User: Which sequence fits this backbone?
């Protein structure tokens, strides 16, 4: 099991055999300075698979419910984002953060790894009950188009099920 420390907005672990294996196999985490840095979504995914134990600064284990509460304080939309992350990972896609693109996630087509080729989609998770203005929708579409990626909206319903809508830019 990977032992990691909750450090601000990231989860940091030593580069153990399991951490390295998960990185090489499915690109979970990011290698930095002989450590593996995980996003909050990646860490919760591994906690739920019983492959990671997260500790606080006093080496006390942070249980799943407590982890979710901490993550929601950092990212108010965490649960909606996580539902989309988990669903895509379970479908076999590699999902990485996309903050530099102005999106929540970038998703690689099956069989493609980060570094081998570019992500196919940028993804915006949205709760089914939320609203999106035409201005916000247009901005998301422009970001996807300018980064040469397809826009994928992940709509999360009350049962945490996700429905995806792919949006394409068309010139008449």
Assistant:
């Amino acid at each position: 099991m990977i032992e990691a420390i909750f450090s601000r907005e990231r989860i940091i672990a030593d580069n153990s055999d399991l951490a390295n294996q998960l990185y090489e196999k499915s690109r979970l985490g990011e290698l930095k300075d002989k450590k593996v840095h995980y996003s909050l979504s990646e860490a919760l995914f591994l906690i739920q698979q019983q492959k990671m134990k997260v500790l606080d600064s006093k080496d006390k284990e942070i249980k799943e419910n407590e982890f979710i509460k901490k993550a929601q304080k950092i990212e108010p939309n965490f649960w909606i984002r996580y539902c989309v992350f988990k669903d895509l990972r379970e479908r076999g896609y590699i999902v990485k953060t996309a903050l530099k693109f102005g999106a929540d996630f970038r998703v690689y087509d099956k069989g493609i790894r980060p570094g081998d080729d570019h992500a196919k989609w940028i993804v915006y998770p949205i709760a089914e009950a939320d609203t999106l203005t035409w201005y916000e929708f247009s901005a998301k579409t422009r970001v996807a188009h300018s980064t040469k990626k397809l826009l994928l909206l992940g709509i999360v319903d009350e049962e945490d099920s996700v429905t995806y809508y792919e949006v394409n830019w068309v010139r008449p």
Observations:
- The CA atoms of residues 1 and 79 lie 24 Å apart.
- The domain at 78-167 is CATH 3.40.1350.10 (Trna Endonuclease; Chain: A, domain 1).
- The helical segments are 17-26, 40-48, 64-74, 78-90, 134-146.
